[in-house]
Amino acid sequence: MAATSTPAGYMPGFGNDFETEALPGALPEGQNSPQRCAYGLYAEQLSGTPFTAPSHQNERTWCYRIRPSVRHTGRFSRIPVPYWRTAPAIDPDIQSLGQFRWDPLPLPDAPQDFLDGIRTMTTAGDVNTQVGLAIHAYLATADMQDRFFYSADSELLLVPQEGRLRIDTELGRIDLEPLEIAVLPRGMVFRVTLPDGPARGFICENYGAKFTLPGRGPIGANCLANPRDFRTPEARFEEVDRSCQLVVKWCGEFHATDLPHSPLDVVAWHGNYAPCKYDLRSFSPVGAILFDHPDPSIFTVLTAPSGVEGTANIDFVIFPERWLPAENTFRPPWYHKNIMSEFMGNVHGIYDAKPEGFVPGGMSLHNMMLPHGPDTDAFEKASTEDLKPVKLTDTMSFMFETRFPQHLTPFAAGEAPLQDRYLDCWTGLKKRFDGTPDPW
Ligand SMILES: O=C(O)Cc1cc(O)ccc1O
Ligand SMILES: [Fe+2]
């Protein structure tokens, strides 16, 4: 279980209308745009939804900053960020039809900041029509030094696996460690530094509508991810007048501009368009308490809708510690083929369907309509074990699931440590059928 009280520097809630100021009186009272703002600040609105979005979906934040963002941009020139790929990125020579698994990507010895350390594994959909996603690993060994970034293309969901990240955003600071996740909205400027050295993790880049909490249906008002456990940073600014670089990702290209000052200069803000973090240990799982294995959607932390009800552009699902009490039940996942494509990562521990080979830091892809399920050992064990209640402990894997087929990048199909013999994990599933009802 995670700590329940909100730590200093954060505000609790998901999608709340927050207000926060780093200097007293910096937030205008009762209005957004006074004739002159306190401290000589500039008022600026950051719109995360169209102005005309229905009120219950409308997201925007009012920022009161030392300089308006137009002073934090200039002439842009394209720069290479060669391993960060954007959909559509379909390489005719790469076979994406299949089940794939990778060992953890090694951290490099050379200094490499968070941005240069991004390695896209798969892409789906199309950034120009704003559907789909890209899934990346990050391998960071150096701070982003006087370097800032924002993605105009996407919202970023970060899942650390090893090492801590300090994410200084326009709206405040998020300190992130393994077993926590962060959501950085589209357009939010940030810098990542590494308080404890090298860091590795996963990123889901969402081109579509924002992540939100799933409806709980008959589960009711509580459990799964509770809104109060999400944490949004309080306002914090830096007044740094030295040369910096801002990199913007826009329609899959990277553009840099030089600035004479830090863009993290928001002194106060109010609104509901803001970054947040969430401790995965606060997730309260609901599951099978008598028999059978439910669909993994019961473990959905966040969902990014596609516009078609019940069909997500992306579901972010976790497999946390939990009790397995179900009687007369094959307890691991069933064998299946899914219209959604499933990209998984292991943060730590053993994943019950794959006791061997799917290791912490490792990744797998079971693409759209490709069959998969427990490996031979998991099947044999789960079919014959004594079904006492057992607790799965010290385990955390996750799944980025999307309605769209995923395409491997050249990196994922080439340089990355793809396990050539992954399919062998199922070859021991032998024919038992001999016409008698119980050939066991
Ligand atoms: O394939 C997987 O391992 C993920 C998964 C888990 C589960 O419990 C049910 C379905 C499913 O796709
Ligand atoms: Fe699956």
UniProtKB/TrEMBL annotation:
Catalytic reaction equation(s): homogentisate + O2 = 4-maleylacetoacetate + H(+)
Q: Kindly report, in one word, the top-level EC class recorded for this enzyme.
A: oxidoreductase
UniProt pathway annotation:
Amino-acid degradation; L-phenylalanine degradation; acetoacetate and fumarate from L-phenylalanine: step 4/6
Which catalytic residues are annotated? 293
Domain called Homogentisate 1,2-dioxygenase N-terminal: residue spans: 10-280
The record, for InterPro entries, names:
HgmA_C, HgmA_N, Homogentis_dOase, Homogentis_dOase_bac, RmlC-like_jellyroll, RmlC_Cupin_sf
Enzyme Commission number: 1.13.11.5
Q: Where is the Homogentisate 1,2-dioxygenase C-terminal domain?
A: 282-433
Q: Name one GO cellular component term.
A: cytoplasm
Which family is annotated? Belongs to the homogentisate dioxygenase family.
Assembly, in brief, is:
Hexamer; dimer of trimers.
Name by which UniProt lists this protein: Homogentisate 1,2-dioxygenase
Protein source organism: Oceanomicrobium pacificus
Tell me the name of the encoding gene.
Answer: hmgA
